[in-house]
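Assess this one:

_____
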Amino acid sequence: LVCVSYMKRYLSINNIDTLHIVLLGDFAHGAIHNCRLYSREDVCDQLMQVSEILARAINEFSHEVNNVVVYSCYGNHMRTTQKKEESKSSDNMEKVIPWWLEQRLATNGKVTISYSQFKEFTLLTVAGNNIVCVHVNGFNFKDIGITTHALFTKMFGVNVDYTISGDKHHLEEFEKFGIESILIRSLCGTDDYANDLHLYGKAGQTMMIFNNEYGRECTYHIPLS
């Protein structure tokens, strides 16, 4: 995979000790909207294949670093009910992916699968920086920083420094009240459904390096096509 090759190179160049991987959801198409019509494979087959691809990639990354911690947020494409108004956000088939990764990589002592304690949000701390990750569906991206900061400060006593989000199929960054919000590309780029909504973007992933002195040191936008 092109992404794996680039990632391994950047991990080596930056002498990374611990790699944090956040899965931001929408790894497969379920029954929502017309996405099911655009899928060439059954939902179960999609889940099995993407879980195995992720497992192999994570195993490859573990050869370059001492520790790999995998976090996950579920998206909206794999919810079990088509109508958003009738769905329960946590009833999502993508929750199978981290479960499978834990079983699949159980013999790899470098890999840890971390389960979120905050429902659709994932909180991680990297080099002293508190980062909240969320699929962002249902939230205003321009307000996601102050929204999560207010929530996590009030409920958990945690100040939010960064947010990382998926869902919108394109790159975008926005800073508000000192909180940096990063929207990353989708693995699929722009599919037919996203194209109909004018959500254009290239397929890709994002890798960020953080340090203890001033936070985000650099950002790599990795192409997938």
Remarks:
- The chain has six helices and ten strands.
- Helices lie at 2-13, 35-38, 43-62, 96-104, 144-156, 192-196.
